[in-house]
Amino acid sequence: MNIGQYTFEEFKQKAKEFHGYPAPGLLIGGYMVEAAKARLPEGTLFEAMVESGKCLPDAVQLLTLCSTGNNWMKVKLLGRYAVSLYDKFTGEGVRVAVDQKKLAQWPEIRAWFMKEKPKSEQDTDQLFREIEEAGDTICSIRPVTVSKKYLGHGHMTSIDVCPVCGEAYPGSDGSICRGCQGEDPYVSMEGVLCADDAPDLKVVPVEQAVGKQAVHDMTGIEPGESKGPITKAGDVFDIGDVCRLQRIGKFNVYDGEAVPGDEWVHENAAVKAFAKRMAGPGITYDPNPEEGKINFFAEYPGMLSIDLDALSRFNLSPDVMLATRHDGSLMPEGKGVAGARAIPLYISRDRFSRALTALGEGPVLSVLPLKPAKVGILVTGTEVFQGIIEDKFIPIISSKVINLGCTVHMTDIVPDEREAITRAAKAMLDGGCEVVITTAGMSVDPDDVTRAGLVDAGLHGDLYGVPMLPGTMTLVGKLGNAAIIGVPACALFYKTTAFDVVLPRILAGQELRRKDLARLGEGGFCMNCKTCSFPKCPFGK
User: Fold this and answer.
1) Which residues form the MoaB/Mog domain (predicted)?
2) β-strand pairing of 482-487 with 475-479
């Protein structure tokens, strides 16, 4: 049986030239591709979806214009020997797969396909004869419609230069290239200690260092009592230092008169340069590092804001690190928020420059002051409005906003009526509320019309649903110029919900995006401790 325009022997030869040898899977694949082509309407511009990476993609490339290079062939590694050819615009096409039941009458093909006997025991000539005779009769063929997400071709919006490795990559992959994100398929030799990783420093016995400068801080530790530098970088060793250093097991030191040249950057000089670029508004630090390390502190009370992309880029750079508190943490004045370090005593000028580039132009760390906003609290619920159930939302929400420096400017209780909710929300805007917090009416019950009423009042830019438990049905958005937060009824039962995590971000002036909320999923599962210690717990971090 021919394979398209080729005789079986001709296609075997083409397979050998293209694939290296006439693999049985490639020969069967040829019949599969031609079976799919024959069932497409004439003139169809088609693409291919292949479900195995073995042999079958080569059959597609031999018999069609589709290849991975022109992106007309997608290889979806599902482990099934199947290929689909489909209209590139509509997704409508034909799927051809090897049918297990139909292999029963072809024992050599079945033995090969199911790996029932080792290759050395296979009868290759008989196998080829069965493949030629069977053709596409061993396949199931059915119409399919390929998912829209596989149709068309994404275009690169930009080409960026990775600040970590310095190579060009598609900007759509993120702030750094996918290789530097950890997807490298190899072990980089940069991870192996070699002569170029550190300068060749001269070592001298400590007693010969008297009168010379210390190259780095040398730390003494008294277990359970103290840890700190005995000698600091730049200090001149005296005879007393010899005794102190020998007492803590340091008998050799680097010669301070034989330091490396400009191609190397000392740990203290490096971390000072990093700190200057890391620190933004509300962040203070001691400009005199110790042991190549600088700690950062909150200059005034507020919420810690971190450029998480820059943090990731920097920590992917070799020989440096930045450790922080959690993004969104509330910080008292003077509280430590982060620490940065140059890890080796000297880092190469190249790695130093790459780490600086990874930080970008803007600050990585900032403390955003919380705005003392005028808050409106709008309780929705017919049962509360009619007095059947006592309202407890207003005192709960009031306590939370007052603790963050806000004032309760207006409150109202309305029934579960769309028009009433709309009127009350507009009244709070007209009354000067800068933040409107609605309570209840956010679930899927037919009586819950709070969100619909807010839409009628001008709700826009809203994000409904936060990946946190409790508080999943929280809503954030804008109502005119005011921020709005919709709080689900679970806030009556749980002391801490997604509302407690979102509210400080709103008061800090952050424009929350779906991406920001998505990040809250990690750490967003409350452990329901008997005694709640929030925010001193993992929730929302």
Assistant:
1) 376-508
2) antiparallel
Q: Which DSSP state fits 192?
A: S
Q: The tokens of 280 are what?
A: 């933004």
Cis peptide before 535 (omega within 30 of 0): yes
Helix, strand, coil percent content, the chain, rounded in steps of 5: 35, 25, 40
Distance, CA of 515 to CA of 518 (rounded, Å): 5
Buried b (16+ CB within 10 A) or exposed e, 256-295: beeeeeeebbbbbbbbbbbbebbbbebbebeeebbbbbbb
Q: How many CB atoms lie within 10 A of CB 531?
A: 5
Is the pTM higher than 0.90? The answer reads: no
Written as one letter, the residue type at 328 is G
Distances (CA, A) of 430 to 412, 457, 486, 498: 14, 12, 19, 28
Series of mean pLDDT values for 10-residue runs along the chain (541 residues): 94 94 96 97 96 95 94 93 96 96 94 90 94 96 93 73 83 77 64 54 77 74 65 77 75 71 89 96 94 95 94 89 96 97 90 87 94 97 93 96 97 96 97 96 81 94 93 94 94 93 96 91 92 88 83
CA atoms of 474 and 528, how far apart (whole Å) = 18
Contact 85, 64 (CB under 8 A): yes
The count of residues in the chain is 541
Phi, psi angles (nearest 5°) of residue 515 = -60, -40
- Using CA atoms, how far apart are residues 270 and 42, in angstroms rounded to an integer? 66
Token representation of residue 246 = 């020998």
String of DSSP letters for 442-497? -SSSTT--HHHHHHHTTEEEEEE--S-BS-TT-EEEEETTEEEEEE-GGGGT-SS-
| C-beta of residue 271 within 8 angstroms of C-beta of residue 292 | yes
79 torsion bin: left (phi>0), alpha (psi -120 to 50), beta (else): left
User: Distance (Å, rounded) from C-alpha 139 to C-alpha 96?
Assistant: 6
CA-to-CA distance for 401 and 316, rounded, in angstroms?
Answer: 39
Question: Can you name the residues that pair with 538 across neighbouring β-strands?
Answer: none
Token pair for 518: 């998505």
Q: What is the three-class DSSP state of 47?
A: strand
Return d(Cα 375, Cα 450) in angstroms, integer.
18
Integer angstrom CA distances of residue 298 from 275, 359, 360, 391: 14, 20, 21, 38
How many C-beta neighbours within 10 Å does residue 504 have?
Answer: 20
* Integer Cα distance of 337 and 363 in angstroms: 14
- For residues 471 and 486, the answer to whether their CB atoms sit within 8 Å is no
Q: Contact 212/237 with Cβ under 8 angstroms?
A: yes
Contact between 146 and 93 under an 8 Å Cβ cutoff? The reply is: yes
